[in-house]
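S., here's the first fold you wanted:
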Amino acid sequence: MLAKYSELMKGRSAAWSLISLLIIVVAIFSWQHYQQTVLINDYEITYFYQLLLPTLLMALLCGALLAQSGAVVQTALGNSFASPSTIGISAGALLGAMVINLFIDDPSIWEVWIAAFAFALVISMLILLLSQVIGGGKLQLILIGMAMSLAVGALSSAIMIYAEQRMDGLFLWGSGNIGQSDAQLVSLIFIPSLLLLALPLLCHRQLDMLSLGDDTANVVGLSVRRWRAVLLLIAVLQASLVTAMVGVLGFVGLMAPHIARMLGFNKSRQQVICASIFGALLVIVAELFSRSLPVSGFRLPTGVLTVLIGMPFFLYLLTRKKGAMGMAMQESGFGLAALIKLPKFFAIAIPSFLLVLTALYFWPSEVGFEFTAWRMGVAVMAGIGLGMAGCTLQALFRNPMASPDISGATSASVLCIILALQVWPDASRVDLFLWALVGAAIVVCILFIAMRYQLRVSQLALLGIAISAWCGTIASMVLTFGSGAASVTVLWLTGTTYGADAQIGWLLMAVTVPCCLALLALARQLDLFTLGEDWGLHLGQSLMKLRLLIILLVVLLTAAAVAAVGAIAFVGLLSPHILRLMGQTRHWVLLLGSGLVGAWLLLLADGLGRTLIAPFEIASGILVSIIGGLYFICLILLGYKRN
């Protein structure tokens, strides 16, 4: 009797909580409505029914869909940090929506949704398969998801650059703009949205079983793989519909399910309902703030506000010592098995030979020799820095998916460059180089504070993801409302060697050479980092100071590369992988080889970018992202497992 009474009271408490939240939602929007309009004439009535009411309904539907998508993804994958934003669903959907707008004039919402769904499904499945190949760890999944999202974002930015006229206005839309909704759009997607919202509720028993773990779910008779695929398909459908309608609303799918669990809603049905309400509430609050915080006479996109609201929540989850954080904090060794076992000499000689061969093939003629030669030199130096920085981070974090792209240094440096260009459009490359170093210094300070609070290396990796997401959002906001320099600053997001000269080359060399030599001197310590976090205690070394020094060198290398060639993804991720696939484990070999491979990749991308469609150019970052995507696909097909 006591158990039944407790269950009944818990159910009543849940019901009252949901009713209270509904009242809050209605009260907030009613207040907003009263502040803006009183229905006294036909114009204001039209304004209410054609703008305010559709905006409310769109915010409710988008928030509920994203919250349910996040709850389903987290339960299906057993990963509390999984969400549409962190496993590539939102980035893939945005790319799909841009591609369909590129090839079809004024596509319908259904065509945009189909394209967004197809791309989101492909990208998310690629990320999930790759995480299984690397080792299946929960932290690996998030790192892979963020790395792939950055690469997909570079492709989206490339579409913005090369189809600027056709993509006019899509940058604002892609940032998540609820205010663009109208009554016609809401009427079209209202019934499909309700049907999608009902699907997770119909599957609540399967969600409950999956929440117990794969082994328990198999014991009770659930076909785990089949139902996981079905549930993930539902989540992709929900998130891609939101992206097709309003663009990307970050962190909603991560926050809402956590809030529901914190309130004690552990059963899937209650959790999904509560998360839906909180998701809707979060989007409404973000929309209200976007209305009341105009920038340069324009409204902030709702998606910018959801990220800014979500960042403190993400940091709170990051510092929790119990509960959900324990699921994501998996300290593990490398999950790449060697393809071949080469002697150390050949592991260095092969990339050296490829680098020299590529340099000779693309060596410039007498016409424009100095300009092209410095471009090639800058590409080589930036590639060396990014390759060695990626190798170092993978050793420090003991994770093969760590890279400079998700350390926060790249995004912070790009953000500082973009801000500088908005204030000083005629700033020289030297000025931008210094501003990139300012961004790097800020990241070092943040990571130093995190180390003082004894955060583990896996938590530092997630902190880098948070910094990258926040800086990327601010950069998008600045570009959305910035001046005419936006088309130039977008180039920094894709990465290009165009415009490199002797001054930049010497500055890059002045930063890269000392940092690389210092990392080579620390190769022995990096070997020991792969053994775990306790080795320093046994050897009497101060790990915090050593980590800070290593991170400082990595951030300086990354910032210098960004200042010279922009944000180029995958170089720091692929280069160490190739050396490990050659069977190398000693870090003096890994560092040298990664630097050479990084230099070769970036030099190859620079040469191909200059010659493939000459006299036009393809940004080096786009070509490197394509190479990285092909590499990951090959890695999945080869099916490498953990050692």
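And the second, which I think is the more interesting of the pair:
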Amino acid sequence: MVLDTKELYARSLLKGKRWSPEANKAYVMPKDEFHTAFDSGNLQEMEQVVAYFVSRHYMIDSPRITKLQRYYLGDNDIHYWANDKKLRNRADNRIASGFAKFITNMRVGYMLGKPIQFKPDDNMADDDKVDQLLTDFNQANDEKYHEKVMKTNLSVTGRAYELLYAGEVTEDDNGNVQTPEIKMRAIDPATAFVVYDTSIDRHSLFGVRYYTVEYNSKQYSYIDVYTANTTYHFKNSEGLTSQSGNDYELINQEQTSFGTVPLTEFINNENRTGDWESKLDEIDAYDLAMSEMANSEEDFANAKLVLNGDLDFSDNEVEVKNADGSTMTNDDGQPVKVPKIDTKDPFLWLKPSVVPSANGSNTIIPSSAEYLTKQINEAGWQTFINQLSTDIHKDTNTPNTTDEAFSGQSSGVALMYKLFGEDQERSMQESLYTRGIMRRLRLLGNFWKKNLEIDSPDLMNSYTPHYTPNLPRNNADLVNMVVQIANSNLVSEDTLREMISQVTGVSADAEKERIDDEKQENEGPSQFDDAPLKGVNPVDLAEAQAKAKQQVPDAQPKTMNDLFSAMRQGQSDDKSDNNAKS
């Protein structure tokens, strides 16, 4: 990630402007020029096109992305601001705030804390094979974690890149070629981009992923180029800043089965900016305020001591010795004495100074000791940093969970209003994220259709991702709400199972299977067969069966509505008992 390339990391540091005005622009080129370069079979023309975009991305876009990644890691620009405090023996603390990581983690957890559910449309015929293919793909690629990585990249840099590629071809025991496994990876936004055509639909022409490897004191750069049908692997040992492409070396190339560029670009918003990118000035100001306060406290601890008066060493003097060890004497023959000063001594004796004047009178200067410090406006400083924190949370639509107003005593409606801005951000970002997921599903459909796994790639268009906001929940209130909805008889049992699954942790489909299994067990052989028992009067048998049914009634609810009816009956009985007691 951000630490992989030292030179790129260094270029992301603060040097005047944060980044070039040309940064964060979409990459486009005329479609006819693309085909001229890529379809002609002339590698030199292709290499020139790729080298131009790689050089531009590496020099202009990557510093911006790397800076944002540094802030997420807590390596803010406060660590690199230049001053001469250390030269003046002053405190120079560099405290970086964690606003960037807090806002990103809140946004990721709120939107994707609960896994995305992939559900087919109601009008789609049941196709267990497609469901199984999609389930296996998600499990093999740890789709739940992958979505969080993608969303983190989106929140930090404003863009994220996802690469689909096929694994190695294998054969079964009979020698039949198996469909290769499709793999999915999130690519570092600082080293990837997609080039589009100039049409209003902006169709992707090709995608690029580049990276640098350090080995044996040498750097090697690799560039992977993805088109609709072919993947090219280049090697460059001269650096990534050249736009000629003459130093590009084609290592190998391979055919793909996705039918379009397998590198998908996700965007966080139409401007492709991060969730807190616009508040970098406030984050820097907050870091500076915190650092300066820490410097003031440290400078106070190391403040200079000012003494007024004379040091009294009358009872604490030592004789000065000569080189031979004898006592040094003055002109009067008296031993020369000097104050005995111990730097570890926690106190000093002071006495007033007597300053003689010309008229014969003396001026007495009282003794005193105090540290030389400056007055700190702590109240004003606290107001300043609180205002910065409030502005950062407000302008990024991120709730401040440490705010006293954001307490557990707030009503549900009050909390909804506090999360209103966050919900608006989540709604827009879900729509953009869904575009990327649907492109992923279409790529999967193309691959499986070409490998004869499914009948048509259009089947994947019937699947829609469903998001569930990850909010703290009150299980008691949720159960009561489900009971009230069940009383209305306005929703189906499947809907009730989906709602109650938030409490039980069991999906609606799994819960339905459990209920069906219990029904089959309960509908097994009864205690008495229909055939008369040997030696038993049929009249006595009927009486025994009726008596057993009265003693052990069938209390197992048959449906979800039966369950809630039993719950309501139990609540009604409890109220009747309480009223009778009162």
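Why I say that: The radius of gyration is 38 Å. The first strand starts at residue 27 and ends at 28.

Talk tomorrow,
H.
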